[in-house]
Amino acid sequence: MARAIVYSEIGTPDVLHLVEIPDPVAGPGQVVVRIEAAGVNPLDAKLRRGARPGAPITEPRRVGFDGAGVVEALGDSVTEFAVGDRVAIGSTVGTYATHLAVSVKNLDLLPDAVTAAEGAALSIPVGTAYQCLRSLNVGEGDVLLVHAGSGAVGQAAIQFAASWGATVIATGSPARHEQLRALGAIPVAYGEGLADRVRAAAPQGITVALDCIGTEEAIETSLELVVDRDRIATIVRGPDAASFGIRAFSGGSPEPLTAQELAWRAEAVGVAIGLIASGDFQIELGPELPLAEAAKAHELVEAHAARGKITLVP
Asked: If we measure between CA atoms, which residue out of 154, 200, 187, 140 comes closest to residue 42?
């Protein structure tokens, strides 16, 4: 029997339970992956506690969207992958498990230079950052302000934008400033006087802003410094973004992603894997916990008590 984390009611982390499930079978266009690492995202915790709207729970609900592992079985018509291939999983419900049937469209090959933990850390944060920057048309000559640059999405946004020729200003606590510099950003501390510090760091002006924290300070500073509100986006303040005249991606945005935006999110994983393998992209890894400790992982995520991506290992 395989094992998986499930919950049967909305609530605190202790609603998460490790249970035995039938071994998954690969259907047409699918493979069975033996999970080596599952990425823990804030979204997982938001869904578990009911902070994101969802259908009523009528049967045990699986957890997790990102992971990495090894292909163990192939379904009919699968030619893109072979048994034994290392893969990264994205956009697939239920990665908190020992085994999972996954559509080949949601897989990317992992080279030996990329660890399972790194592969499991990509889909949601890296995909979000890449899609947001593409949607905002960030490129050479831009000056990008990233709020919460030391978070997973912020770190990815800094690295993509810098590699595309943009100047990046990133907010973060002073303890994280050296890391932000290493990623390619000019760090500034958040707090009173933020707009003035950003102006001093970027006297040429800010052309585009990405809010990854959702505070009033982040929104107000972006509105003050960026002339074109169509080049301001938030991944947190989806429900009220329209009242500011800015764009919203993720974070409860009332508008679904377009086909192009979904394509960018899928494209991001392969791009990041190549950059990691060549030493040109960093993933900050955090605690590695046993699968049975999924509740502890959610506690850490909700308390913002761990630096880097938390992964669960079966």
From this structure: 154
- Alpha-carbon span 148 to 156, nearest angstrom: 11
**How do 143-147 and 208-211 pair as beta strands?**
parallel
Q: With the CA atoms of 83, 93, 99 and 271 taken in that order, what torsion angle do they form, in degrees rounded to the nearest 10?
A: 40
CA-to-CA dists, residue 172 to 150, 180, 181, 212, 246, angstroms: 6, 8, 11, 11, 22
Distance CA 85, CA 97 (A): 18
The series of mean pLDDT values per 10 residues for the chain, 314 residues long, is: 98 98 98 98 96 90 98 97 98 98 98 98 97 98 98 97 98 97 98 97 98 97 98 94 94 84 96 97 97 98 95 97
Cβ atoms of 282 and 155 within 8 Å: the answer is: yes
Measured torsion, CA atoms of residues 110, 105, 50, 38, in degrees rounded to the nearest 10: -20
174-176-196 Cα angle (round to 5) = 45
Q: Determine contact, residues 38/75, Cβ cutoff 8 Å.
A: no
Angstrom distance (rounded) from CA 97 to CA 34: 9
Listed residue (45, 86, 88) closest to 67, CA to CA: 88
Spell out the residues 6+ positions from residue 21 whose beta carbon is closer than 8 angstroms to its own. 1, 2, 3, 4, 97
Block residue for tokens 């993509």: 160
Q: How far apart are the first and last CA of the chain?
A: 13
